[in-house]
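COMPLEX REQUEST
Ligand: glutathione
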Amino acid sequence: MVVLRQRFQTQSIIRGERYGAKAIDHLWTDRSINIYRLPFMELSVITLFAANTPNGHKISIALEEMALPYEVRRMAPGDLASAEFRSLNPNGKIPVIVDRDGQQVVYESNAILLYLSEKADMLMPRTPDARIEALQLLFFQAASIGPMFGQRAHFTKVAPERPPTVVERFTAEGARLEAVMDEMLTGRDYFAGEYSIVDISIFGWLNASVAAGFAIDERARLKAWFDRVAARAAVQRGIRILAAPSGVAARPGAAA
Ligand SMILES: N[C@@H](CCC(=O)N[C@@H](CS)C(=O)NCC(=O)O)C(=O)O
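STATUS: Structure written out below.
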C-alpha cells in the first residue's frame, strides 16, 4: 500500500515536470520534498536549466552524445537572479543540472561535463596520463577560452561602448588562443587524443565565436577539428534543442 502510494505520487511529479514547469518550481521552493530519492528506473531524469548559449550547448551536446534521458528548462535572463534559481547556482548563471537519479545539483559547465561523463562512463580518457591531460584542457577551456572569447564577442559586437584598448586586448587574446589550439591539434584529431568532453567544452565556444564572425579558416587544424565535431549528429541535436522556444521541452525520444 505504501509502495503503491509512493509510486502514484512519484509518477505525478514526473508528469508535472515533463509537461509543465510546476513540479520543478516546487523543487526549487521546497527542497525538503525529497523527490531526488525516488526508487524507480523511470525517474532517472535530468533537468537541464540552460539557454541558447555556448555554455548551455556544452551540456545539451554531452547529454545527446551520452543518450541520457533529460529535459530542458529554457531560462530567460530575468530568471537567473531569482532566489529559486540561485538556490541551485549561487552564481546565478546557466547551465545547471538537477539529476534526481544521482540526487545531485551541479553547476559550472565543465563540472557538469565531468559529472555526466562519470555517470555515463563515457567521453573521458581512461589512462592516468590522458585523464590528466583532459582535466588540464578542461581547466584551460574554462579559464581562458570561455572568458576571453566571451569578452571578445561582447566588446566587439554587443557593448554600446567599445574602447579601442579593450577591443585590441580581447581581439589579440582571442586570436592568440586560436593559434594555441591549432598548435595543440598537431598530429591529433581531437584535443585529448580521442573524442571527449574536452572537445564538447571547446566546441561550445568555438561554435559561438565562428557564428559571431571570428573566422578560423586560416587555422587549418582547428578548422578541420571544428568541422569534424560540427558534423556529429548528437552535436547538431544538442544545439537544436536549445534553439527551441522557452519552456519545458522533453528530449525527443528520451526514456521516461
Ligand atoms: N563558468 C560558467 C559560466 C556560465 C555563464 O557565464 N553562463 C552564461 C551563459 S553562457 C550566463 O548565464 N549568462 C547570463 C548572465 O550572465 O546573466 C560555466 O562554465 O558554467
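REMARKS: Strands lie at 46-50, 70-74, 96-99, 104-107, 248-250. The longest helix spans residues 128-158.
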